[in-house]
Write the structure tokens for this entry.
Amino acid sequence: MHRVKVRVVEDALDANNTIASANRADFDREGVTVLNLMSAPGAGKTTLLERALPGLSVRPGVLEGDVAGSLDADRLADRHIPVTQLNTDQGFGGECHLDANMVRSALPSLPLADIDLLVIENVGNLVCPAEFRVGEDVRVMVAAITEGEDKPLKYPLMYRTCELVLINKVDLLPHLEVDLEELLANIDAVHPGVETLVVSARTGEGVEEWRRWLAARVARRAAAPVA
Amino acid sequence: MHRVKVRVVEDALDANNTIASANRADFDREGVTVLNLMSAPGAGKTTLLERALPGLSVRPGVLEGDVAGSLDADRLADRHIPVTQLNTDQGFGGECHLDANMVRSALPSLPLADIDLLVIENVGNLVCPAEFRVGEDVRVMVAAITEGEDKPLKYPLMYRTCELVLINKVDLLPHLEVDLEELLANIDAVHPGVETLVVSARTGEGVEEWRRWLAARVARRAAAPVA
């Protein structure tokens, strides 16, 4: 019985990966670098994009994943960033992650010819988004320092699957009983050597480094011919 | 095709509800009030339990749901609170919620005869836990003020499905650009009239009110014969 269940899940992930590969091929054809941005709810994904994308040396676009509403998309549109909204609440109560098929359905609405970097802002959730590839080149997560030091140990797959962890809201450190060094050690324990950046969307600390990281990631694609 | 998918989802939820009813009957037989405690990752569920459960006028027990590890269970056991650990990482990368069957599998490990209140601490996630009944009498959620004012609008089902919203980390309000009144208005917009309590696990603000709320909820069962 358990075996059957696992088989069904594997089939679903296989189907997702097939569609993710098709998305990836389309992104490659347009020369767009695609970043899957993930975090818990309220960790600051949108605010970090509001801060970093204006003034970026490459042309960004955003695909906004939300269960309901278009609050984040509206905020980014206000900053003149090309943004497409994708809501997941057609499912029962709302899907807790984006999958490759949802992203595929949004492709015709994306201005791929006019951007170099597409940021896909996933649904706020530390579990399922890590399990579904959507056709991205790179995965980045935002960990708010207010969530505590222990989250990498409790949600290890999310931390393992990312190339960069942005540690946000560090301006609040003086007011918290949270140990930044312990958080960094826990991240390194579940994903040895992963890059981290300490940032504050509120004060702007680390935002220029995040911007440089994004531009370098886009430049890396431009330098390396598609395999 | 879409119709078929919806049918499959409905069948899964029907099966879950059948098992949830069986759990509920077992809890009723033992006279245990069951609370399903939900929130985003790092909102402070465990810390609020650490603060409120010792000194409670009724006998508490906790079922700890986590993707991986036993960090929270260990913290509660250190406070001499009877606690049972339930990990969800047998699934692909970990289930993002508890379902009725997982809770059913833990029933033999729970000291139901020796407790009046069972708190089921769900996996940190604002989407799927709201979709799966586990046999609880009441649902409570923790919303950390650090998550921002907009979360009720983005994750409405979770807010609609709870009888009480604990607004935690309010000690940080002076250091945030978050408006508590706006958060309260957004909660009321998606779930008119729902009870809220403003608390700080760190300073202890509101913890005695939370304790009284819990004791009153247990007393309500004792007063009303099971239907």
In short: Chain A touches chain B through 44 residues (CB under 8 Å). The longest helix of chain A spans residues 2-30. The helical segments of chain A are 2-30, 45-52, 71-78, 100-106, 151-154, 156-160, 180-190, 207-223. DSSP finds eight helices and seven strands in chain A.
